[in-house]
């Protein structure tokens, strides 16, 4: 199943104890991989190549116990080997990601982000299901080690100050012997960006084409990093003639009330909007417009920033949208008709109950008779003269 293999050195540092000025360097094929000093136990380093070098450097001051390590050379599946030899130097803005198959028992991969004059924003997204997977991001004395056994993707944000030391990103996996490898897949993404790279063209809208059957992506500036302040980004998604735009908002988190995303049906962004979203929201439904163009305006203030948004958009024929609308309209007419009949019946019942009825609150009156021949009135009689 895994026929492609390559020669790999697996170094196990069982014990290392040196002064802070003494160190051990590891390299393959002349490319530097790692430097260890201080105190370490049971560290595994994986290096691909034909020749491995170890260099131990000490000064004349303090002496420690030194080190004890073992090295084996094995043929390892290529999908389990770091895609680059040594430490890969990255750009000052960029991203790196890696998917590690479950059958890989030991992995060691390292990157370096150079020193930069501007502040950098970092986002780490990782999905591990074992305690033997770890992602470590180090800038000088700032060490951030990310682990989880939940099997769910987690996200972390932080910032690197201006003119700091380079940042290293290290992914490690070291399963013990006889460890079950069932579904131990790991993945991670690290993205970093300077503040000058977080922007949008506020003078002209960004035009995006919606295609039937193709879900394309639209994100807030710097996503998945937090967006910047004082933005006003305008996007126009255009569907083919006879079609409309369909939105699937998969991620949305902005500062409540102050950072908003407004939707407009058409190219006019100054009139009445379809909807306005802000805060942390979930969208278990698709959003449709009626015209061929859907405009979006994203405005932020200069204060707090959150993750932003991720939107998938596509196009759909108008018939697919109008038919359900007609069906909904027909159903609505029937419901309104039934409710009207019920309302009329209720009013009729109320009026009927209020109307006076026969024998309700009867009035009793004595009988009166007049006669010219009657000259005597019986006491207690109801007859008046």
From TrEMBL:
A Pfam family that this protein carries is: CUB
Q: Look up the signal peptide feature and give its range.
A: none
| PROSITE patterns according to UniProt | CUB (PS01180)
SMART domains documented for this protein? CUB
Q: Spell out where the chain crosses the membrane.
A: 333-352
Q: Which UniProt keywords apply?
A: Disulfide bond, Membrane, Transmembrane, Transmembrane helix
> Which residue ranges does the record assign to the CUB domain?
200-316
Q: PANTHER family from the xrefs?
A: PROTEIN CBG20422 (PTHR39385), SLIT-LIKE 3 PROTEIN (PTHR39385:SF2)
Q: Quote the protein name from its UniProt record.
A: CUB domain protein
- What are the top taxonomic ranks of the organism? Eukaryota, Metazoa, Ecdysozoa, Nematoda, Chromadorea
């Amino acid at each position: 199943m895994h026929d492609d293999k390559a020669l790999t050195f697996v170094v196990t540092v069982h014990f290392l104890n040196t002064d802070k000025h003494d160190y051990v360097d590891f390299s393959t094929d002349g490319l530097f991989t790692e430097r260890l000093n201080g105190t370490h136990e049971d560290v595994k380093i994986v290096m691909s190549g034909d020749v491995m070098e170890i260099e131990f450097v000490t000064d004349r001051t303090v002496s420690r116990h030194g080190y004890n390590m073992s090295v084996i050379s094995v043929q390892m599946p290529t999908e389990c080997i770091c895609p680059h030899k040594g430490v890969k130097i990255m750009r000052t803005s960029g991203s790196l990601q890696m998917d590690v198959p479950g059958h890989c028992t030991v992995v060691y991969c390292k990157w370096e982000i150079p020193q930069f004059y501007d502040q950098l924003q970092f986002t780490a997204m990782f999905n591990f299901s074992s305690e033997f997977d770890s992602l470590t991001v180090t800038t000088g004395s700032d060490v951030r080690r990310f682990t989880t056994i939940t099997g769910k993707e987690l996200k972390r944000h932080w910032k690197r100050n201006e003119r700091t030391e380079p940042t290293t990103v290290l992914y490690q996996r070291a399963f013990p012997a006889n460890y079950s490898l069932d579904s131990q897949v790991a993945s991670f993404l690290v993205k970093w960006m300077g503040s000058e790279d977080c922007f949008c063209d506020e003078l002209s809208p960004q035009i995006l084409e919606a295609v039937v059957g193709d879900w394309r992506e639209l994100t807030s500036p710097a996503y998945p990093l937090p967006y910047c302040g004082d933005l006003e980004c305008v996007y126009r998604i255009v569907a083919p003639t006879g079609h409309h735009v369909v939105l699937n908002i998969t991620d949305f988190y902005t500062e409540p009330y102050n950072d908003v995303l407004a939707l407009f049906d058409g190219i006019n962004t100054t009139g009445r909007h379809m909807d306005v979203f802000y805060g942390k929201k979930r969208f278990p439904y698709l959003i449709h417009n009626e015209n061929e163009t859907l405009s979006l305006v994203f405005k932020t203030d200069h204060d707090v920033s959150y993750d932003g948004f991720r939107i998938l958009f596509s196009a759909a024929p108008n018939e697919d949208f109008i038919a359900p609308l007609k069906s909904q309209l027909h159903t609505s007419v029937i419901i309104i008709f039934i409710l009207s009949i019920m309302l009329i019946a209720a009013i009729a019942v109320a009026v009927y109950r209020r109307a006076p009825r026969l024998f309700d609150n009867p009035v009793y009156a004595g009988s009166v008779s007049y006669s010219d021949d009657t000259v005597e009135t019986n006491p207690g009689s109801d007859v008046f003269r």
